[in-house]
Amino acid sequence: MKEFYMQLALNEAWKYQFLTYPNPAVGCVILDKNEKILAIKAHEKAGLAHAELNAIAHAFKRLKPEISMPKEANALHDFICKNHQNIFKEAIAFVTLEPCSHQGKTPPCAKLFSELGFKKIFISVKDENDIAKGGGDFLRKQGIKVEFGILEKEGKDLLKPFLKWQKGQFKLFKLALSMNGSALGKIVSNELSRTYAHKIRSIIDLLVVGGQTIRKDKPTLDARLCQGKAPDLCILSHEKLENFDHNIPLFQIPNRQIYTQIPEKARFLMYEGGENFLKSFKNEMDLFLIFQSSILNDQKNVTIPLNLKPLYKNFLGNDTYGIYESE
């Protein structure tokens, strides 16, 4: 059963993959002392509550629906510590990454488990970060049973983007296909899929596109579907930047930086384009985000030899999407 609960935590974390940048995607499941599920939550965005605090707050609300809680992470942490009334005594948690033991933008999660009287914490992956590590040791010193390595390989897969952008550049290729595998057409995926892509655009360091896409589609390349910040751009093209039609909407975004070479400081890059762009850069990519609609069209299919292994797959309305790595 340990693997079952950890898989629930992993699946929840994958829903917010990339959106937690520069933090890792993390999931947490809380069980009461009778092993009934109280919460399945994840870290959703940097600056917001970590997965553990998010799950505990959700479980708290479920057990005490009459209580209203603050939303800001530090205030929420303090409120739960002062008002828990031992409702989590002997509870169990499953966390995809070792709970942090330091105060960052949000409070230490290891301390929260200790304060609330949890009896067991199951962890997928040990945190090797010098600042955040040590949560497991802290919990053991408080008399809490800690077990590492539950679905460890799957936990490490979840952390792949985080480990890449921590040490250098992480490159993600986003592609939208019709059900028959065509990338052609002005709008291929549904609004839920496009909104998820816009959420990623709103937090990346750089969106990388080709000149052909700009000339043909005349796009805006912003994050309007999530009311987010439009990303800075890098346009990779044989044509000089000044020779593009600057009436194309992407050039009208205020305060947008547009590069013709990828700056070294950019850590999270998303590449967007069609078949030719994919063909040019497929060997440089760390992961691929591929949306597939449930609509068949009469356009030419993508025909690139590329062997992909899915790390995660899910639905967004009638679309499916997957996060893949190259084999």
The secondary structure category is: alpha/beta
Distance between the ends: 30 Å
Radius of gyration: 22 Å
The description of the largest β-sheet is: 8 strands, mixed
Q: Mean of residue pLDDT?
A: 94
Order of helices and strands: HEEHHEHEHEHEHEHEEEHEEE
Strand order of the largest sheet: 9-8-7-10-6-11-13-12
* Strand segment count: 13
Protein name: Bifunctional diaminohydroxyphosphoribosylaminopyrimidine deaminase/5-amino-6-(5-phosphoribosylamino)uracil reductase RibD
Pathway: Cofactor biosynthesis; riboflavin biosynthesis
Pfam families: dCMP_cyt_deam_1
InterPro entries: CMP_dCMP_dom, Cytidine_deaminase-like, DHFR-like_dom_sf, Eubact_RibD
Question: Helix and strand layout, with pairings?
Answer:
Elements: H1 2-14, E1 27-31, E2 37-42, H2 51-63, H3 73-83, E3 92-97, H4 109-116, E4 120-125, H5 135-141, E5 145-147, H6 152-167, E6 170-177, H7 191-203, E7 206-210, H8 211-217, E8 233-236, E9 258-259, E10 268-272, H9 275-281, E11 287-292, E12 308-316, E13 319-326
Parallel strand pairs: 3-4, 4-5, 6-10, 6-11, 7-8, 7-10, 8-9
Antiparallel strand pairs: 1-2, 1-3, 11-13, 12-13
Task: Please summarize what this structure is.
This protein is an alpha/beta fold. The chain has nine helices and 13 strands. The chain has an eight-stranded mixed beta sheet with strand order 9-8-7-10-6-11-13-12. A five-stranded mixed beta sheet has the order 2-1-3-4-5, sandwiched between helices.
What would your notes on this structure say?
InterPro entries: CMP_dCMP_dom (IPR002125), Cytidine_deaminase-like (IPR016193), DHFR-like_dom_sf (IPR024072), Eubact_RibD (IPR004794). α2 packs across α3 and α4 packs parallel to α5. The protein is an alpha/beta fold and 327 residues long. The protein is built from nine helices and 13 strands. An eight-stranded mixed beta sheet has the order 9-8-7-10-6-11-13-12. The protein has a five-stranded mixed beta sheet with strand order 2-1-3-4-5, sandwiched between helices. It is elongated, with a radius of gyration of 22 Å. Helix content is 29%, strand content 22%. The protein starts with a helix and ends with a strand.
